[in-house]
Write a structure and sequence with these properties.
35% of the residues lie in helices and 16% in strands. By secondary structure, the chain is α+β, with helices and mostly antiparallel strands. The protein has two domains: 8-301 and 385-476, Amidase signature (AS) enzymes (Alpha-Beta Complex); 308-381, no CATH class. The strands form four sheets. Strands 1-3-2-8-10-9-16-17-13-11-12 form an eleven-stranded mixed beta sheet, sandwiched between helices. A two-stranded antiparallel ribbon has the order 4-5. α2 packs antiparallel against α3 (48-63), α9 (308-323) crosses α12 and α9 (308-323) packs across α13 (425-431). Keywords: Hydrolase. Pfam families: Amidase. Residues 24-464 form the Amidase domain. It is an enzyme of class 3 (hydrolase).
Length: 492
């Protein structure tokens, strides 16, 4: 039997029934990686010897009667997580020899749950792109079309899942870095509520491994099914044992509803600052039709929805003001000089990005205050609705673009070009206020490329969008199988 494309839940059931061993699953996954990853380049740091040893240990533990949530399941880990004995470079050649001595909190939780770590997945340099390429490990290709990106910054993880290289992966998300690769590669990902999952140990090389509270950024699960996302989130969720974990446990509330007909959903397919391409609009419509057919209450407009234009500006300010924290003084002064030349009438997102990079502390406090007003607006919204369905980005996966100056890159939306980073506005809708969002497959483009949508839920009610994702998977289908032999849109 071909095990590589089954879900973690299915593999766990087969392991419990004695139909397969972890050693067999691990050997099969490694064989598939060795066969197919030359074309995809998803696994940048293999760890096959230790994976085989962990699989043998898992089989022995099961023989003793043990049963943990991920016991014997092959998984991958984003390169940016510290894994003891493996390099953590964030795609930066200067740190090619840096090897941390301890596992990140989430890697420890994976191993404690019994997972078998096959290796680490590729990222963009510094995790700062919507693609996954760097000088150290090269370019990760989209499994459905090798001329296109797998997304970033968790692009290696998404490509690995779509290709059958392990059943689960863990990534991170600041600007759609879980959701965009899932959308581009046809898999599932969940951006948890801000702060729900501890992130210690997912730090740049040489940075102190401290239990800091991140602003905007989260760590989260990736999978080939909605139920697997919940399985992995339950392993990942919880505060850092060095801080809040001393006194707090996590007990997520149950999903608001168990049936599709009970959900109240707002469907959005247009953003005021950038158009949505026809392929993505079609994916949103497919989900909307499934919701209506399932009896859900579906609306297209609501006065309760926080202003999307203001939200995009606040998100841009918070995101880019933090991006220059460690810039050399000379580079920072050059940014200040460029910002001073901006016209006061320039309200473009490009201008907002540049102004944000030279924010004063007073400027940041004002932006954060406006964020809190938006958070309260979302609380009022979710008193009347259970979820929002909207795009992850305006287009399916785009062709590789390695122009070293991202300001010169453009995103093509149905034949019209827009600034490259403007496509982040959809990712920012849940990220700015810290809401949970689940990326789910929603069909294919006319060229056969995967198209996904995101399901946004109320803060700390992560099980609500996850449950909606599971119901939609039953209704319209989900992951459809990995491409075969590099042929775009073909399936095994």
């Amino acid at each position: 039997m071909e095990w590589n494309l089954l879900t973690a839940e299915e593999l766990a059931a087969a392991l419990r029934a004695g139909e397969v061993s972890s050693a067999e699953l691990t050997d099969e996954a490694i064989a598939r990686i060795e066969r197919d990853d030359k074309a995809i380049n998803a696994i940048c740091v293999p760890d096959f010897d230790r994976a085989r040893a962990a699989a043998r240990d898992a089989d022995q533990a099961r023989a003793r009667g043990e049963d943990r949530p991920l016991l014997g399941i092959p998984v991958t880990v984003k390169e940016s997580y510290n894994v003891s004995g493996l390099p953590t470079t964030w795609g930066m050649p200067a740190h090619r020899t840096y090897v941390p001595a301890e596992d990140a909190v989430q890697v420890s939780r994976l191993k404690a749950a019994g997972a078998v770590v096959l290796g680490k997945t590729n990222v963009p340099m510094g995790l700062q792109d919507i693609q996954s390429f760097n000088e150290l490990y090269g370019t990760t290709n989209n499994p459905w079309d090798h001329g296109r990106t797998s997304g970033g910054s968790s692009g290696g993880s998404a490509a690995a899942l779509a290709s059958g290289f392990g059943a689960l992966s863990i990534g991170s998300d600041l600007a759609g870095s879980l959701r965009t690769p899932a959308h581009f590669c046809g898999v599932y990902a969940h951006k948890p509520t801000l702060g729900l999952a501890a992130a210690r140990g997912m730090v740049p090389p040489l940075a102190p491994v401290l239990p800091v509270d991140l602003d905007l950024a989260v760590v989260g699960p990736m999978a080939r099914s909605a139920r697997d996302l919940t399985l992995l989130l339950d392993v990942m969720a919880g505060p850092d044992p060095l801080t809040l974990g001393v006194a707090h446990d996590v007990a997520l509330p149950p999903a608001r509803h168990e049936r599709l007909c009970d959900f109240r959903v707002l469907v959005l397919d247009q953003h005021p600052l950038i158009p949505t391409g026809s392929a993505v609009r079609a994916g949103v419509q497919r989900v909307a039709d499934a919701l209506v057919d399932g009896g859900a209450r579906v609306e297209r407009h609501s006065p309760l929805l926080p202003d999307l234009t203001e939200a995009a500006v606040i998100y841009t300010q918070l995101l880019f003001s933090s991006s220059v924290a460690h810039f050399p003084v000379e580079a920072y002064e050059q940014l200040r000089a460029r910002a001073a030349l901006l016209s006061a009438d320039d309200r473009s997102l490009d201008a907002a990005r540049l102004r944000a990079m030279v924010f004063s502390h007073r400027d940041w406090i004002e932006a954060n205050h406006r964020r809190e007003l938006h958070r309260h607006g979302w609380r009022q919204f979710f008193a009347e609705f259970d979820a929002v369905v909207c795009p992850v980005t305006p287009t399916p996966a785009f062709p590789h673009d390695h122009n070293p100056d991202p300001r010169e890159r453009r995103i093509d939306i149905d034949g019209v070009e827009y600034p490259y980073f403007d496509q982040l506005v959809w990712a920012g809708v849940p990220t700015m206020p810290g809401l949970p969002a689940t990326a789910v497959p929603a069909g294919r483009s006319p060229e056969g490329l995967p198209v996904g949508v995101q399901l946004i839920g109320p803060m700390y009610e992560d099980r609500t969008p996850l449950q909606l994702a599971e119901l939609l998977e039953r209704k319209i289908g989900g992951f459809v199988g990995a491409p075969s032999d590099g042929a775009p849109g073909s399936a095994v």
